[in-house]
Every structure is written in structure tokens, then in C-alpha cells.
Amino acid sequence: MGYFAFGIYSILFFVLQLIVAEFLFASKCAKKEKIKYSFVVGVMLDALLLGIELVLVYALNKLIPLPFVIAILYLFLAVATLPGLLVYYEIDFSQAIMIVAEGYTLQHIAAQIVLTLREPLRPDGYFKPWNLQEIIVYIVVYGLIYYFIIRSMKTQENLPVKEKYLFVIVMLVVVVGLSELRDYYAAESVMLAIISRVFSIICCLFILLVLTGTLLNASMNEEIETLKLLRKMELQHYQKNKENVDLINVKCHDLKRQISVLEKTGSAITKEELERLKKSVDMYDAFVSTENDVLDTILTEKSLYCKEHHIRMTCVADGEKMSFLSPENICAIFGNAIDNAIEATAKVEDEENRLISLKVFERREMLIIELENTYNGEIEMENGVPKTNKKDQIGFHGYGLKSIQLAVNQYRGEVQIYVKERFRLIIMIPK
User: What is the pTM of this model?
Assistant: First the structure.
């Protein structure tokens, strides 16, 4: 294979390695709707930019030393994949440039491993065309890093833009700088070249591991802030509902007295109309008394909803046993738990089987909360909790059980879930 042909082959093979690496890092990103057209446009833009960059590199070859030209060439090749990412995925520029840097780092790790394994076998110092063994090494390295690192990585949405660019700069500086270091030592001896490559591999792996931890930390911080916002909204919702429930109860009480007067005075209203009026009043006279004001308000609100949607909810709760729980945590635990139960039970077609049962009691210095409900279909579990596909109108997703768990954890309690004929949520909190 001629030198020029081998150079073109090497460039194309590098681009292919880089695109595969970027695809692994972008695997959790949302694709755009018109994928076929996006893919074609992305490839055309990549090819156009690649052609322009090769012309620039050829011009630079006459102005600066060859090692710097090669470093610039590979950087340009990496940048050439940016348009394809932006066109194909629902990501912004900062996310795309970070995926490029991550892919470049992964490609660098695999390439250094291949070169390290190849070094003792090429004493003449010249590259040879890629062979099947080396391709297998690339596949194995990519697969291992995907399984142990990329798969557990969180998405980049929660990472500040400044931190994204900082990681991009660090990754590119390390990759390019260590490449230059490797080339420098390669001219000295084979052993120094191998040592520099092993050091390069370790540095790149360390960067990816630090990035994984940073993304996880950013995701956890975002989740905590979201849960705090939800807890605040739940408490505000409780306070507003308490006012509404109190007002409804006052009105129901007044209406009952007026109905009683009408029955005694024998007014012109018919008996049928009087019965309908009494049923209407009873519909909203659903005040629940457990000796805990916060729980009473929550249960009263949920009872009204259940009556309206033909769901039978029973409750046996000793509210006095919950005096050590804060109103905020009571709202988080019972509000989310009952909401989830109502949502599942409402999907049961047979109204006779729409059942929710709540028990709150004390056993051996433990507060026990048991919530049981019927459901329709199958419940898919993930990491011990039901997998949710819902996303409500304000943009929160799957935070109900997380909010419950956060509240329970404050008291060193435990949450257990059982799914058989019925869905059972059991919460145990030490007093």
C-alpha cells in the first residue's frame, strides 16, 4: 500500500473509530424525529467540513513542523464530526463538543492499547495496514469501556456549560499532549514509547472516571433540588386544600341544617328532590378524622376524588402515632402514595374492584403505614420500584416514590413494595 493511500486509509479509519466512540457516548441522547434525513444531512456536512479541513492541513504542512500538523489534523477530524451530532441528536453545541471530546478520549485509549501491543512486533518503525486482530482489540476495548463506564454515565443536561467546556479542554489537552509525548519518546526507545502509552491510557481512563462521578453528582444535585421543590409544592398544596376542605365542611354543615329545617316544615320541595340534595351534600361531606390535622386534610381531599371516580377507599389510621412526623413529610409520604394508588386503581375497568386500603398503626416502637390497592395489567419493576413512564404536565417524572423515600430516610425508616394480586406499599419508621 502506497504512502498516500495508507494516509487516506488511516484518516478514514480514525474517523470511523471516532464516530463509533461518539455513538456510544451519545446513546442516551434523544434522536431527532426525521432520523433518515438527519443522518444523510449530517454525513454530508461532516464530509464537506472534512474536505475543507484537509485542504487547510495541507497548506499548514508548508508552514509548521510535521508533528504539529498531525496533531492539528486529528483535532480537525474530530471537529468535523460535530455537524453530524448536532443534526442527528437533540443536543446543543456544548453537549455535542463534549461528546466529541469523550469519543476522542475513548478512541485514544483504544489506539494506544493497539499501538502498545503492536510495538514489539514492528521493529522497522513503520505502520502496517490494519488487521483483524487489531480491529478485535478496538471492539473489545470499546465494549469494556461502554459496559463499565459509559453505561453508568448520567446525561449531560445537569452539568453547567462552563464545566462541560472545562472537561473538553482537559480531555483534548491530555489526548493531544500525551500523543506528542508518545511520539517524542518513540524516537528514543521502544520501552519509553510503551511506558508513555500506558501512562496516556491511565490518564484518559482517569478523566472518564472523574467525568462519570461529576455527571452523577450533578444529576443527584438536580434530583435533590427537584425533590425540594416538590416538597415545597406539596406543603403549599396541603395548606390550600386545608382551607378548601374547611370551607366545604362548613357549607355542608349549613346545608344539612337547612335540609333538616325543610324536612320538618314540610316545604314545597318534593321528597325526591330532597333526597337528591342530601346525596349531593353527602358527596362532599367526606371529612376524615384521624387525630392528625395534616393527614385529615390529605385523606379528605383524596376521599372526595375517590367518590367522584367510583373508587372505594377505606382508612384505619391512628393519627396520634404520627405526631413526630413533620407536616412536610406527612404530605410527601401520604400525598404521593395515595396519588399513585388512585392513578393505578382508576385504570381498573370493573368499578367494584377499584379498592384502596390504608392502615396506620404502631407495632413494637415502629410506625407502620400500609397502603394496598388494586391495579390493571402488569407492573414492571426496576431496581425494586415500579418503573414509571408517566410525565406530568409540570415536567416531573418518577419523583413520587423518590419523595416518599427521601421523607422516610430522614427518620431512618424503610420502604418495601410487594406486587402480587394487589400492589402493597409498606413503610416502617422507628419512633
Answer: 0.62
